[in-house]
Specification:
- It is a single chain.
- With 180 residues, the chain is α+β, with helices and mostly antiparallel strands.
- The protein is built from five helices and seven strands, in the order H-H-E-H-E-H-E-E-E-E-E-H.
- The radius of gyration is 20 Å and the shape is globular.
């Protein structure tokens, strides 16, 4: 009687499916490619889409002062860039999150043309992790140069990272830390 009273054998209500991670599958505008950069960091599910953001000859340039102060490389290529985000997700546990927030820089206007674009943003990247002597907040500014490829999709060709204050870790410095 006890088992019959608990309705053990009656089906339960189904759970609503979780919302899929945001991603612009066909980035036909430069703005959509920039959005995808944010989506790659804010949604773990997009880590495998990350490489599609970059042209084959992509280069990431570290902040010059970070290069001098911390012996970072001057730049790296698409392969290192995409492997680094994979490393980040492998080194933070599944329940940890990253959150990337971009803001327009008031003193520098974006320049979007028919087949190329320059974006200027300040950023805050918050990352939950357990690596000693590494902060969880990374701040700075960047300039991203994109081109529209023959496919009609926009790809990031060049990314320059800039430090705002000496005591802040930049995104580039975080990338270097997680690339090891």
């Amino acid at each position: 009687f006890v088992i019959a009273g608990c309705n053990v054998f009656t089906p339960r209500d189904s759970e609503k499916p979780s919302k899929p991670a945001e991603w612009n599958t066909f980035p036909i505008t430069a703005q959509q490619s920039l959005e995808n950069l944010v989506f790659a960091y804010n949604y773990r599910e997009n880590v495998y889409n990350y490489a599609s953001l970059f042209s084959d000859d992509f280069l990431f340039y570290f902040d010059n002062q970070d290069v001098l102060d911390f012996s970072l490389p001057t730049y790296w290529n698409k392969n290192t860039e995409t492997e680094t985000l994979m490393n980040v997700y492998q080194r933070i546990n599944d329940s940890s999150t990253m959150y990337l927030k971009l803001q327009k820089i008031q003193s520098q206007n974006d320049n979007v043309q028919a087949d190329r674009a320059w974006f200027y943003r300040s950023y805050e990247l918050t990352m939950s992790h357990s690596i000693d002597n590494t902060p969880t907040l990374f701040v700075g500014q960047f300039r991203i140069f994109m081109e529209k490829e023959n496919s009609g999709f926009w790809k990031i060709k060049e990314w320059n990272d800039y430090r705002l204050q000496a005591d802040n870790w930049t995104w580039g410095r975080a990338k270097n830390e997680f690339s090891l």
